[in-house]
Amino acid sequence: MSAAGASPQRATVEALLTDLHSSPLTIDTWARLEPWAVARVTFGGAIAPRSVIVKWVRSHPGGARAEPWRLRTEVAALRFLSDDLGLDLAPRVLAADLPGGLMVLEDLAPRTALDHLLRRDGAATHVGRLAVFAHTLGRLGAATAGHAGIHRARRISLGPIDLPTDRGSRLVRHWDEARGHAAALGAPITGQAEAELGAALAELSDPGPFLALSNGDAETNNVLLHESGPADARLIDFESAGYTHALVDAVCLHVPGPAWMTVGDPVATGLADHYRRALTDGVPEAEDDRRYGFGLSAACISWAIVRLQRFAVLDTREPGDDSRAQLVETLEAAARTATAHRAFPHLTGWTLRTADLLRRRWPDADLDFTDTAAFPPYTARR
To answer: Aminoglycoside phosphotransferase domain location, by residue (predicted)?
Structure first.
């Protein structure tokens, strides 16, 4: 929207920018980037930069992503990366008004979200950019491993911490609910599969040298790259950032996230290797095939189990809904990853049996996801 129609936060932003540049500034345009609580703001004068990004806490308490801690979490993570570690992996925080619930960020334009490029052109056109994405995720883990104390101190200085997003896998807290859905489906996790699930939980809860910072949502919509020219990616959306098992961020390369039906074979495309080599620069233990495979398999299967929470909702949808087939492929892709790394054989068996139960329950989801003509890598979920 124009400056005249901007939100009441306009005056706060003008004051922050004036203080930042030590001279009065007036906003020219305030363009809301729907559907997010984000706007691109431009201002005139002989000042660089000429535009910034403003992000604020949503104004509906109790609504999605409206918790005040999210802003504190993002400001702490971004300043930790740029100011404490000197990294260029994310936008810089230019100014913040935490009591007022907003921050001003470096504008990363003309970079654009990778998921937009994949949807528009297909993955085959952007193999190189996918490789940069994988490398950047690995680089984030490598650069932040061993620095949890510095990050925690910075985060605590900004206010109360939301513990589930501060440390440990975000996957773990959803498992009990997912296990209930598995039992309701007729596929309870018992016996040796249950014991392996406990081992996976222990791995994710105590990552050891793999403890690293994650933005909390490592997916292609949260990385910005140039459509042409320099391949310097920037990660965004650190609202749920926290230290967790580094290999949780690698899951998106092996198992479909919410946006995709399939992500293809990251080993064949080299994405898995791009991520692992970058991570090894800061986490030498990633060179150990057994240890790396165990952690990656734990993260992938855990993600699949968490996604099983959607079973009750998907069961009520009309036949042909892409979300049903997506859940099947999520389970099977996680199982393929664990099988390739010879990890969790009993839990892998349970995962495949559950996928088969869903195929029989939902004949419309009984599809061949290995058919790359029908399901090329990064086929978007409708």
So the answer is: 67-278
